[in-house]
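FORM 7B: Structural annotation worksheet

SECTION A. Query
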Amino acid sequence: MSLLPRPSLQNQRRLTRGMQLILASLIVYGLLAGQLKAISNGAIALAITFLPAILSRNYAVPLDPWLGLWITTAVFLHTLGSAGLYGRIFWWDNLTHAMSASVVAGVGYTVARAVDLHSEKIHVPRRFFFVYTFVVVLSFGVIWELFEFGLDLVALSTGVPMPLAQHGLDDTVRDLMFNSLGALLVAVFGQAHLTGVASSVLDRVFEEE
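SECTION B. Predicted structure
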């Protein structure tokens, strides 16, 4: 039995609606001030915050209040960082990388677990899931850093500010370290909390095929 209090569906909705309202306000500010970065980051994050409700309502994926709030909080914190907190609070970037990496790890684990449950010919040992989670997150982290590097090149050649940017080799290594921390949390606790989601993915995708 978990020692952490589980938020009710009503409280989860209130927290989500509050974050969505702040994101919508950021988009309005971007439109009024002509800030393309605020518009793009706010719009993308706001769209992602609706994803848990869509998965639960349209595809019957069992996202409980903790999981839905987890995804929403990750994109919300990143958007606040892009709005100025990255430069003002030194540890904010570390927090958002750990949170975002944990979401990526959760998705990767869920897909792999669904495949494992679907096929009798494929058996993935529990210990391998631990290693697999790290590989997925680290690979995604490297691709993300390369993407940011590409945006830097575009910004330098065109003079157009990009919504994402790198800040040196030290920052890149630090990002990968906190990505690993997020992966570690999912690798340790994911099997207990994401098995139901994987089973639902199995029922909704593989069984229908």
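SECTION C. Observations
Residues 1-5 have pLDDT under 50 and may be disordered. The longest helix spans residues 126-158.

SECTION D. Sign-off
Analyst initials: ____
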